[in-house]
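Feature request disguised as a bug report, sorry. It would help if multi-protein outputs had a clear separator. Right now it looks like this:
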Amino acid sequence: MPVVHIATVVPISLTVGANRIVPAVAIPHPLGNPKMDPAEEKALRRSLVEKALTALTTEIEDQTVF
């Protein structure tokens, strides 16, 4: 079953063997940034989710960071 790991610390994801890795924003707020205005933050979140969906549908052979 394909999965995507949205990760704030990519080297750890690589070490544990995650295959599809999407870098996140920051440890306390992986899918957002509370310092942004709501519209900008929504766009950021949408971008990360869209990147994860692209990673999910991409055929890969080895660990891949998107």
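(second protein starts here, but nothing in the output says so)
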Amino acid sequence: MLYHLLYPLQAWFGPLRLFRYITFRGALAIGIALALSLWLGPAFIRMLRAWNVKQYIRREGPEAHQIKAGTPTMGGLLILLAVTAATVLCIRWDTPFFWALLLTTLSFGAVGFADDYLKMRRRQNEGLTSRQKFLLQVTAATAVCSYLYLEARAGRFDTSLTVPFLKNVHPELGLLFIPFGVLVVVGSSNAVNLTDGLDGLAIGSTLIAASTYAILTYAAGNAIIAGYLDIPNVKGTGELAIFASALVGASLGFLWFNAHPAQVFMGDVGSLSLGAAIGTLALMIKQELLLVVVGGLFVLEAFSVMLQVASYKSRRKRVFRCAPLHHHFELGGWAETQVVVRFWILAILFSLMGLATLKIR
């Protein structure tokens, strides 16, 4: 919006030419999302308390977490508000795929909201059934992947696959792009959701992944940089770096209130939408396989749950003290803050590895 309103006036006021640059508007999006989160956060938390929107702790988790029962949840609404406002203000509205990206993020947020609302109404940690949640996620992901496939048929997108480390390997997926994309988006959404179990863990890790994808998105949208790095140049998607930047700002702001001891939890409305946003962004810039590296921490968390369930069902034995993985280390004697900071370090290392693949090819 600001680009369309202010950039045309640069002939009368020179500094307004800054709105031409993605980097300037990306930094502005970070600032706006951060400022909105910090400004609205205290009132938002008071409102959640007044409406008795509180967290119900699952009985299977560590006993020490029962003290967190009653903490306000559904803080992801604040994240979505900050991201949406900052992006709409700073991005060019004619950016390819932007509205599809925003709609997908909000759709997954709606699924998470329904889940959180049912938990609150039933006064227990049981909202939508796993099947209901999965079907809604698949429906939303299928919609955006079908849209991208149709864009590819029209010559405005590419359904080939970019393989990390291998610059000359680009298998064409064709119609298989739709189920593959659904797997990426739904998998990313649920992986972030599973990581959301300790104060600050999921939002801090999301901040790191979003920062990395802000860089990758800017590079993918710049023909010169993309050519130098030999990565797909997806025309017009450089502007989507502003969306990723807004994610960074909103995550920073929410972390202020979610740091231990947390004043508010993001809930499924936050974790499902954030994971879907990053997964969809990865699809749009053709770096979906790289998400396994950049989001390596999320992958480990999700894999620990799958391994635990498979082992218990087949052998009646547990691999970990408790799943997801962060609970295993917590029950092993690590303090909650130690687990969170050490997992953040892992997330940073995974992100650096992801960026390194751009040159190791």
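Even a blank line would do. Unrelated, but nice: The mean pLDDT is 93.
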